[in-house]
């Protein structure tokens, strides 16, 4: 017999942080620095913040040192605008690029061990799409800690939060946002080991749940990146923005899909086809192997389609080669040793003497929960939700538009984490304590979980997940067109129904892995439907969204796509204007911040 579902207890705090990765903890650290007595509860889906996905980030964090004799923040702004395929918001671009170096200094002063040059300066490496003097030559702009930059960031922000007494709850997810009229007053949470639902009442709530690309067959994301934050926002009637923009990293290791960081190409690695030809010269004559990720991913697929790729029978996968054999021994041993160890361990090749098989792998979401430039979640382009904030990969301010440059993600989570923290501090000055649980608290959560627990069908979780991953990879992947997208949408409707007939073997809530996985799977199907619908509606190619039936960018779509889906497949769309404030200010080289042609 299924036990009755109920809220077991109620916790109270000033700030609830949903997601204890880099963005959420940078926001928490900022709040603690400004108001040390703030009571903060931070939820992490994993056992410890040190298991957060931020720790897997390898290559670096873009930031322009004001003492750099060649680089300027304006160049970084231009690269970000151009890299987004003219779809990012220029007010956010300026805010982030202007303050990036301040965050490098903050991290270093709080304990992060950046790699150094022989002269003792913070070391930098080039990354795709980052160039000097408006595209003239590659820029050395990515500050890094060997190939563990994300780990260094997490060590630092986690330590700051521990210092101020932030209360962490591990193996826990938020399942439902709570509201008093239009004001967010916390969330319902579920802790896996005890199988207990709790209510957390908070003056302010920050969503920082990270990415979502586990609906694809091959992904760099950890298994917990199932779009939970996006799903609970949709269930609350809030929109998500630009989810059709999914970034495929061009160099995933064939087999496990583990990221072979862009840092490898930054250090001089070369992409080669089956004839060992360095093919990126054909597609990006200037940037070559350091072109933006969307361009390189499509180039790799084109090489494969035209018969210049290779096929790995062990993994049933097409690929090209990544060549590191010519790199100096010092680079192999000191700068990229950890990534090379992944090739040895998981692929069985030695990068010092062998070519490495790579292919595009789902990596990052450019879109997310829409916010303004301060991290306030938007109900629509004109209205924010009081008490609700979002930052990091779960949010879309939007720094990246429809395509992100490598190393801008760590930059965003740190800068926008700080900005969001400051906005929360301002909000707390006048915020009232929640008066109690709303009468409908738990309705969404208990409706979902009781359905899963009472399922008596014969469907299998693994079977539904398998079809989902192949459908999204084949029909909503790097190349898209109308017929496959319509087929994908029909399949997702079927999968939604099938997922409601997956039998959960245990009726107890305690440590019920079947229940947890079923909830995650439904979130993935929900978010996948929004991705497919957004891709169908955007009849153009821009950034990471490429329609073979509409291969050119169109000014008709110079906007952000807002999608509402309070019930599955009950879709409505809205538009948010792209901020053009740098262009409108008519400052230095402002004409380059118009809707320019994108070539590398």
Radius of gyration: 23 Å
Structural class: alpha+beta
Please state the second-level CATH architecture of the domain at 443-575.
Up-down Bundle
Strand content: 15-25%
In helices, the fraction of residues equals 25-40%
Helix count equals 16
Largest sheet: 8 strands, mixed
Per DSSP E runs of 2 or more residues, the count of β-strands stands at: 21
Poorly predicted runs: none
> Ends: how far apart?
62 Å
Looking at the structure, the CATH topology of the domain at 443-575 is: Methane Monooxygenase Hydroxylase, Chain G, domain 1
Question: What overall form do the CA principal axes indicate?
Answer: globular
The CATH C-level name of the domain at 443-575 is Mainly Alpha
Average of the residue pLDDT scores: 96
CATH superfamily (homologous) name of the domain at 443-575: Fumarate reductase/succinate dehydrogenase flavoprotein-like, C-terminal domain
Fold and architecture overview:
The longest helix has 25 residues, at 513-537. With 600 residues, the protein is α+β, with helices and mostly antiparallel strands. Among the domains are: 250-361, Flavocytochrome C3, Chain A, domain 1; 443-575, Methane Monooxygenase Hydroxylase, Chain G, domain 1. It is globular, with a radius of gyration of 23 Å. The strands form 5 sheets. Strands 1, 2, 6, 7, 8, 9, 17 and 18 form an 8-stranded mixed β-sheet that branches. The chain has helices at residues 22-34, 73-83, 90-109, 149-163, 228-235, 263-266, 280-283, 293-305, 329-335, 337-347, 408-428, 443-453, 461-475, 482-499, 513-537, 581-585, and strands at 7-18, 40-43, 61-62, 124-132, 137-143, 167-169, 172-180, 183-191, 196-207, 240-241, 246-253, 270-272, 310-312, 317-323, 356-365, 369-370, 376-380, 383-390, 395-396, 559-564, 572-577.
């Amino acid at each position: 017999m299924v036990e009755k579902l109920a809220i077991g207890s109620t916790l109270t705090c000033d700030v609830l942080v949903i997601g204890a990765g880099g963005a959420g903890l940078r926001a928490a650290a900022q709040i603690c620095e400004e108001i040390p007595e703030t009571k903060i509860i931070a939820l992490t889906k994993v056992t410890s913040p040190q298991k957060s996905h931020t720790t897997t980030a390898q290559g670096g964090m873009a930031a322009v040192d004001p003492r750099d004799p060649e680089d300027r923040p304006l160049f970084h702004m231009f690269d970000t605008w151009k890299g987004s395929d003219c779809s990012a918001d220029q007010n956010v671009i300026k805010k982030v690029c202007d303050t990036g170096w301040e965050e490098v200094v903050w991290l270093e002063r709080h304990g992060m061990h950046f790699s150094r040059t022989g002269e003792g300066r913070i070391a930098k490496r080039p990354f795709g799409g980052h160039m000097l003097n408006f595209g003239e030559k590659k820029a050395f702009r990515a500050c890094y800690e060997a190939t563990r930059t994300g780990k260094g960031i997490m060590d630092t922000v986690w330590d700051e939060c521990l210092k101020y007494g932030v209360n962490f709850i591990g193996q826990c997810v938020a399942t439902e946002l709570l509201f008093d009229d239009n004001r967010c007053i916390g969330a319902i949470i579920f802790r896996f080991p005890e199988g207990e639902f709790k209510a957390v009442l908070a003056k302010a709530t920050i969503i920082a749940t990270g990415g979502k690309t586990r609906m694809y067959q091959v992904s760099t994301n950890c298994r917990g990146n199932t779009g939970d934050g996006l799903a609970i926002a949709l269930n609350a009637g809030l929109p998500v923005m630009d989810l059709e923009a999914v970034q495929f990293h061009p160099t995933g290791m064939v087999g496990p899909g583990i990221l072979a960081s862009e840092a490898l190409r930054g250090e001089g690695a070369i992409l080669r086809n089956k004839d060992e030809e360095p093919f990126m010269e054909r597609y990006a004559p200037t940037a070559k192997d350091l072109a933006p990720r969307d361009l390189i991913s499509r180039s790799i697929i084109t090489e494969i389609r035209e018969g210049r790729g290779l096929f790995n029978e062990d993994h049933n996968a097409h690929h090209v080669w990544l060549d590191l054999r010519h790199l100096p021994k010092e680079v192999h041993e000191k700068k990229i040793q950890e990534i090379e160890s992944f090739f040895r361990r998981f692929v069985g090749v030695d990068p010092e003497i062998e070519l490495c098989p790579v292919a595009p792998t789902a990596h990052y979401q450019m879109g997310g929960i829409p916010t303004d430039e301060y991290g306030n979640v938007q109900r629509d382009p004109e209205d924010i939700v009081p008490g609700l904030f979002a930052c990091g990969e779960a949010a879309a301010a939007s720094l990246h538009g429809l395509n992100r440059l490598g190393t801008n993600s760590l930059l965003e989570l740190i800068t926008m984490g700080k900005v969001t923290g400051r906005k929360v501090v301002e909000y707390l000055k006048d915020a009232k304590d929640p008066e109690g649980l709303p009468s409908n608290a738990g309705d969404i959560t208990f409706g979902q979980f009781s359905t899963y627990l009472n399922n008596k069908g014969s469907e299998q979780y693994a079977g539904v997940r398998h079809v989902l991953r192949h459908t999204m990879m084949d029909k909503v992947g790097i190349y898209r067109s109308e017929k496959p997208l319509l087929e994908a949408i029909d399949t997702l409707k079927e999968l939604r129904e099938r997922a409601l007939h997956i039998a959960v073997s245990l009726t107890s809530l305690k440590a019920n892995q079947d229940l947890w996985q079923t909830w995650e799977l439904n979130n993935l199907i929900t978010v996948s439907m929004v991705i497919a619908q957004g891709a169908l509606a955007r009849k153009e190619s821009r950034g990471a969204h490429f329609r073979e039936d509409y291969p050119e960018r169109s000014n008709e779509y110079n906007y952000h796509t807002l999608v509402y889906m309070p019930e599955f497949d009950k879709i409505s769309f809205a538009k948010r204007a792209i901020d053009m404030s740098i262009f409108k200010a008519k400052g230095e080289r402002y004409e380059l911040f118009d809707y320019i042609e994108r070539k590398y």
